[in-house]
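I'd like us to work through together how a protein chain folds, taking it slowly. We need material for that, and I hope you will provide a protein of your own picking. Go ahead whenever you are ready, and we will take it from there:
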Amino acid sequence: MIAARQGTAPPMADTQSRLTWYTTLDRPRWRPPPAVLGAAWTPLYALTMVAGARVLDRTAGAQRRPFARAYAASLVLGAAWSALFFGARSPRLALADAVVLNAANVSLLRHAWRADRLAAVELLPYVGWMAAMTAVTAAVATR
């Protein structure tokens, strides 16, 4: 799902085999239902894009660069998670990526807070959701 929103979606022929593999995993009962998983990404990324645009529009130079790096890192690490989890079928590698992704998201939130507090508030649902998805990934990876 992350990959589809970041332009790295897998070929359609492989999507079914990835879905089949995913359904064979021992997943925690407390994970969000599939409909919620699918529906959550669009508004989360929309808020993230709005927040990113607000901060980038309101900053320059030394204040803008660290935010831009954290923003890019978050997007790249999100795409990497999808490639590792679904592409490589490696929940453990995806978990390692997710830990780094969460650190990048904390940095992203901190830099946004300094530049535009409304943008930081707009990032909170994404940061929280990614932390929750890291917990799901950890549960899968450690079973």
About this structure: The helical segments are 2-5, 12-24, 34-58, 61-87, 91-115, 117-141. Residues 1-8 have pLDDT under 50 and may be disordered. The two ends are 23 Å apart (CA to CA).
